[in-house]
Amino acid sequence: ILNVEQSPQSLHVQEGDSTNFTCSFPSSNFYALHWYRWETAKSPEALFVMTLNGDEKKKGRISATLNTKEGYSYLYIKGSQPEDSATYLCAFPAPGNNDMRFGAGTRLTVKP
Amino acid sequence: DAGVTQSPTHLIKTRGQQVTLRCSPISGHKSVSWYQQVLGQGPQFIFQYYEKEERGRGNFPDRFSARQFPNYSSELNVNALLLGDSALYLCASSQGQGTSYEQYFGPGTRLTVT
């Protein structure tokens, strides 16, 4: 069974705090790792697609790293803002079936 | 450019009925995937279609079926609805079939089965 685990389940931080959360995935048969941001009442929005071990990607205050050998990716948010409040999902494609396996997400709340 | 669109937005059906959900991908995108999302869980993969052919199927019963049309829009059909089919159904489009392509999601269809 291919499990994608995310931690923590939820996170409450103050505006201006930096934060990070984890996505763990099976390290064998790696193809890609996707990160999404899902704000309430909106569509999930793609943040990053990561394909290479050691990859680091950045979009504004959000960045992500990837370790395919040990099977984890970190998402970092620097100087969190209330508009960063959302659920952050990672997804890992199962080999051979185009089946994208999503974690349950980390729900981030940034208090002003 | 228009994003991924889905219709209807909300739907209420009774057990045993059949439902059809619709998705229009971003212009130029040839791949459409369907997901079911229930509260507290991540989206679960149902189908992927690319160039009008099924390219992937998740662990869902045969009551779930889909198709893709020549214009790359797609329909998801669910027969003999059960209470447990109540969920948000998401459609995502991408340019290609492979899993390294970025997916763009629609707003979803909220299905309630009573």
Explained architecture:
The complex is a heterodimer of chains A (112) and B (114). By secondary structure, chain A is mostly beta strands. Chain A has no helices and 11 strands. In chain A, strands 2, 4, 5, 9, 10 and 11 form a 6-stranded mixed β-sheet that branches. A 5-stranded antiparallel β-sheet of chain A has the order 1-3-8-7-6, with no helix packed on it. Chain A is globular, with a radius of gyration of 14 Å. In chain B, 0% of the residues lie in helices and 50% in strands. In chain B, strands 2, 4, 5, 6, 9, 10 and 11 form a 7-stranded mixed β-sheet that branches. A 4-stranded antiparallel β-sheet of chain B has the order 1-3-8-7, with no helix packed on it. In chain B, β4 and β5 form a beta hairpin. In chain B, 38% of the residues are buried. The interface between A and B is medium-sized, with 24 and 29 residues.
The amount of helix of chain A comes to: under 10%
Biggest interface pair, residues each? A-B, 24 and 29 residues
Helix-strand makeup class of chain A: mainly beta
Output the structural class of chain B: mainly beta
Gyration radius of chain B, rounded: 13 Å
β-strand number of chain A: 11
> What is the average per-residue confidence, as pLDDT of chain A, rounded to a whole number?
92
Taking Cα atoms only, what radius of gyration of chain A do you get, to the nearest Å? 14 Å
Taken in chain order, the helices and strands of chain A follow as: EEEEEEEEEEE
Largest sheet of chain B: 7 strands, mixed
**Major sheet of chain A: size, sense and barrel closure?**
6 strands, mixed
The span between the termini of chain B is: 37 Å
Strand count of chain B: 11
Note the overall shape of chain B.
Answer: globular
Order of helices and strands of chain B: EEEEEEEEEEE
Q: What proportion strand of chain A?
A: over 45%
Quickly count the helices of chain A. 0
Beta-strand percentage of chain B? over 45%
